[in-house]
Specification:
The chain is of the alpha+beta class. It is 21% helix and 30% strand.
């Protein structure tokens, strides 16, 4: 099923994950955390400084944030969501590196970055080893969108909303 077919479930999951008491700085200080929320179907809803993996992953809105996804096998995509200034500095390369490692990203495999400020992030994290395998996006990047990624039978599909 293409990523677009998960839109209704993803929208409900994103709405349910919204919280006025969201502790983005705490998640950043911890080097990222596993997604604390999921859709009713169990798909991880990845907020700022969270990561998750599965056949389908859902990202909350990516503004000047950075999203990263990596295909891991025939039916698994892993993702992470980063935001500026969560630690007080615009780009926290130490916490970024920790979160990418905790999320299970493979530094030797292609990584797709997306979001409103990819070029800024690339410059701000210039010394990070995680940019060495940056791949061209197989989809059109759009800022200020929420995203759904599905990896099914070796095919990655994407939908932004």
């Amino acid at each position: 099923m293409p990523a677009i077919n998960h839109e209704a479930e993803a929208r409900k999951g994103i709405a349910a994950a919204a919280s006025a008491n969201d502790d983005v700085s705490g998640r950043c200080a911890a080097g990222g955390k596993a997604a604390a929320n999921a859709t009713t179907g169990g798909k991880p809803v990845i907020r700022e400084w969270e990561y998750g993996s599965g056949e389908v992953v859902v990202f909350t809105c990516i503004d000047s944030c950075l999203g990263a996804v990596q295909v891991s096998g025939q039916n698994v995509v892993r993702g992470a969501h980063f935001s500026m200034f969560a630690s007080g500095s615009q780009f926290d390369s130490v916490q970024f590196d920790k979160a990418m490692n905790s999320a299970g990203f493979d530094v030797a495999s292609p990584i797709y970055y997306f979001g409103g400020g990819v070029s800024d992030w690339r410059k701000g994290l210039v010394n990070s080893c995680w940019w060495k395998q940056e791949n061209a996006l197989p989809f059109e990047d759009e800022a200020q969108k929420a995203w759904i990624f599905e990896q099914k039978d070796g095919k990655l599909t994407v939908f932004s909303m």
